[in-house]
Each structure stands twice: as C-alpha cells, then as structure tokens.
Write a structure and sequence with these properties.
Blueprint: H1 4-18, H2 26-39, H3 44-51, H4 56-59, H5 67-91
Length: 92
Amino acid sequence: MPSNNCCNEHLHELKRRCGFRTHLTFHVGRHTFATLALNRGMPIETLSRILGHTNIRTTQIYARITNQKISQDMAVLAEGLSEVEGELLVQI
C-alpha cells in the first residue's frame, strides 16, 4: 500500500498534467468520495465501514446535508405517501 505522501505526489502530478487548479490530495479525494456516496444514497453506516471508522460520529463529518439531498429525500417521501394515499382510497 503506498504511503499518503506517495499518493499525494501522484495526485499532484495528475493535477499538473490535467491543468487543475484545485488543491488535490488523498484526503480531498476521500472526502469527495464520502460526500458523493452519501448524496447518492449510500447509508452512513455502510460508508462508515468502508472508510474504516470505528465510530459513526467520525463519518458524520462527511454528512453535510445539501439542498439537493433534501429535495431527493422529500421526493422519495412524497412518492411513498402518494402510494399509501392510493391504497387507502382503494380500501374506502
């Protein structure tokens, strides 16, 4: 397994070749992965295990709730409530 320093050197070279101006490190990549995984619906418990955290509070650092995530979650809730409403109307 390459060291953190070795990974960062490779990332710096990739950044240079691609012309990125953003600061790029292993930690930035890990944080980006965690944020994307949560925003795409991965349960925080699963992400916590993937990241190797022993305490879920450590993983919660990555769980910044975004407006996009709130909208997605509300849409899922609305769909579920519509289904329940439809089932109730059928029973009446």
